[in-house]
Amino acid sequence: MGVGVSRLGDPILRAQCRPVSDPAGNQAVAVADKLKSTLYSVRGDLGFGRGIAAPQVGSDLQIVFVCIDEPLILINPQIEERSPEMVELWDDCLSLPPLLVRVRRHRAITVRYRDLAGRPVVLRAEDELSELLQHEIDHLHGTLILDRAHGDNAIWLREEWERRARGHDG
Q1: Of residues 70, 85, 136, 162, which has the active-site annotation?
Q2: Is residue 5 part of a domain?
Q3: Higher pLDDT, 69 or 76
Q4: How many folded domains does the chain comprise?
Q5: Catalytic residue at 136?
Q6: Which of 4, 75, 101, 123: disulfide with 23, CB 3.0–4.6 Å?
Q7: In whole angstroms, how far apart are CA 121 and each of 8, 74, 78, 111, 112?
């Protein structure tokens, strides 16, 4: 893989990230640029990846980059509201690419954050964006999808999960 991503076992993945004091400053911009380039590189290598958080590139700052329909940098993101309605899904992570983990997430959330210009933003996210933001914000608090595994048989090797999903059990 061209650009390194912190992998399971790296202590940075369990760190409590620090708030960014200057969202428009050089340090935040440099981490944001590293997040973007890393996500696009890894997405090309692995064939998946919609978001990445600062600890995954070795930084302990509260910065997240997601790209579903359009790229979005969130600095110091905080979940303000969570819908009572939950969804269950199979989640993956760039820091543990061979695994799929069944998790439960809130169907909708409201996130308050700063953009790279330092402006405050409030975002209401639903469905795919909601679950992705919850995943990435978890990284800023040292929480991995393994910690959110839900139900019996909730952790699978991707290869085995895909093989069974194709109906090749034997």
Answers
A1: 136
A2: no
A3: 76
A4: 1
A5: yes
A6: 75
A7: 32, 9, 11, 8, 6
